[in-house]
Amino acid sequence: MSAFLARNRLIVLAYAGMVVLLLVTALFSPGFLSVSNMRSTVVLAAFVGIVALGQTFVIIGGGIDLSVPWVLNSAAIIMALLCGGQDLPLVWVMPLLLAGGAFIGFINGIGVAQFGVPPIIMTLATNVILQGLILVLTGGSPTPSAPALIQFLSVGRLGGFPVIALIWLALTLVATLLLSKAAFGRHLYALGTSATVAEFSGVPTARTTILTYVISGLTAAFAGMLLTGYSGQAYLGMGDAYLFTSIAAVAIGGASILGGSGHYLGTVAGAMVLTILTGLLPALNLSSGALLIVYGAVILLTVSIGSETFAGLGGRLRRKEG
Amino acid sequence: MDLVTVNGLSKRYGGIVALSEATFSARAGEVHALLGENGAGKSTFIQILSGAVQHDGGSILVDGQDYRPANPDAAQARGIAAVFQELSLIPDLSVEQNIWFRHEPRTWLGTVNRTEMRRKTLALLEKYNFPALRPDQELRRLTLAERQIVEIAKGLAKDPRILILDEATSALPAREAEWLLNLTRQLAAEGRLVIFISHRMAEVRAIADRLTIFRNGSTVAAHEADAVSDNEIVTQMIGRHLDRLYPERVSTATDRIALGVKGFSSGSRLSGVDFALREGEVLGVGGLQGHGQRELFQALFGATKASGSIELWGKPVSIGNPRQALTGKDGIALVPEDRRGQGLLLTKSVRENLTLSVIKRFTENGLLSRQKEAALVKEMVDFLRIKAGTSEQLAGTLSGGNQQKVIFGKMLLTQARVLLLYDPTRGVDVGTKGEIFQLMRDLAAKGYAILFHSSDMSELVHVADRVLVMRNGRIAATLEGDHISEEEILRAAMLETRAA
């Protein structure tokens, strides 16, 4: 365990940051640490955390997934349309949409791994194409409300715990197993550290790359459906915020944005930090514009303190001064 | 008076002592060789001299004045430039842009004066009789050897009084290495001091006026070059007597063909190669650099596309990528040319590197078994005597020789018995070189089949059972027994070139 801590200093740092942030927030808004408020904070963080799960895999592998917002939007809107407020259709709609998310990820992965399209371009393109498809499909009209079962999954409780928190916990376990205990994890870290060395070492680089995007498509689609339950209905643009937050959560969690390092356990702390921050800022009584500016700046600051990329740069600058 | 005097120089990295009480002195106008095994402290020493790191204790005098550069720029201001093994060039820039990087000639507007830069580049290349280089060529198109030459030009562009060459010849083919040796004499004749690091004794013999030997972070001895024998030098370097560098060559080859290659072609560099590598054999691949050796090794390993037929242990196979090459006990494994770019994950541990190609060997029901992995790691660390603090130490922090051992370990764990070794001793200290040659013969005796390329021809002569000489992408000659000599290899490699 101590070896794990030594190797994952940045993850420990992310959790320390989370605790500090909690205490600071409690100082400004005394009710913040109450059970009900913590509960709702965890629920909000879970959405970020689930989207960021796939993003974590993609980033560790040396890529980035910018198609997250519209995979999320599409899953949310199509689910609402197909279910029409009924629970029963979920039996086939949910697997169908998860498969759809995985398929989008597969396309992204093929483009990156087989055709050498830069990840930014590839995923940005699928994002725009999906946006177009959904607009054609819905004509921009509002959708029916979310089925009750989905609402239960996202806002319901089980034994006092939010259901979505339990789902998040289960997903965290799966992600940790994949990263720390499976051959896939080893392949992924090698790929993100050096694609050439990985290839020369017999790592199935193409398959590994494709799989990361498939996972990202899956989690984005899943988060889209859950988010519909949370807000009661699906609407265009509901996933937009998750592009930035999913990447920021990974970076705050200690992963190098260039790939090869990081862990989902860090991303979990990153998702919490981002969510607590959105709770803290309103307590400071700022206008909504000023709020966004502070939010962005704080994230930039957190990431630059935490991320290895910048730590290296800081070291280099310090050496120059010395 | 001495140009550089170093006393009691010390440097620690955390708990590791890299240099302790090292001394050194060198005069202007001499070529001064710095010798020592990898990890002896040579690299740290020249990093301090060139301003890349700062020392903790001791003093350096340059021209009798205290010298403690805060960074490489400050070192250059005092007339000290270094050419390192790890190249510092930018692939996207041209040759000349790299040479004058951050020191570009300017116009009165402050923009780069391209005409002047071209003129200065050509003047520099001509003055020191550089091998052919096109100033406007993009660096990424150059071979490793050509990049090394650009790196040397970049060092000289600063017009240094002290030029440090860190294993600059190790990436160069014979002709260019010869040029570099002459260059060091020319620089010394101009009154400059050249500090020269090389693991090749013959080179040191050819050019050095004096030499200083490092071991375990301290200075062991300094000699006038003509007052000391090779044996004394090697003994002082490794702290024990090395019987000989090359193991006895006892042929262990059987009649069984491990790797049969017919009509093997790849791109424009490799056309119609036929040969048979036998079980228990060390088959050398020689020739002038750039005649298809690299392409042969890469294509056999599946790293580049190729046509023709390959038989492994009598069975026809097609190898589309390295993963297929490495599969199973009948696979092919490679020690690649570029240790840092192709062989090792520098920011990952020795353990992760060793087991990267054999994750299946310690996976049970889809989960990794850390115990089984640890056993595999221990097996290789012990077998190859890899010197690392723990198996969790990062591969990038190991010395060159130990990094190469990790790559060997990674290859041996795959259980492939056809081994492709591309220049496995490049930049490796003399002690480890001896271990590698011994290992090759031991593996051959166990029935491994080894294809072996070296940029140092004498290694082929002393280690290989047979030598294939390549010329223009074909096998020009196969030398056996008493016919293997540097002269014969060169003759076969150059014959057609001369005729054409």
TrEMBL record, chain A:
<protein>
    <submittedName>
        <fullName>ABC transporter permease</fullName>
    </submittedName>
</protein>
<keyword id="KW-0812">Transmembrane</keyword>
<dbReference type="GO" id="GO:0022857">
    <property type="term" value="F:transmembrane transporter activity"/>
</dbReference>
<keyword id="KW-1003">Cell membrane</keyword>
<keyword id="KW-1133">Transmembrane helix</keyword>
<keyword id="KW-0472">Membrane</keyword>
<dbReference type="InterPro" id="IPR001851">
    <property type="entry name" value="ABC_transp_permease"/>
</dbReference>
<dbReference type="Pfam" id="PF02653">
    <property type="entry name" value="BPD_transp_2"/>
</dbReference>
<dbReference type="GO" id="GO:0005886">
    <property type="term" value="C:plasma membrane"/>
</dbReference>
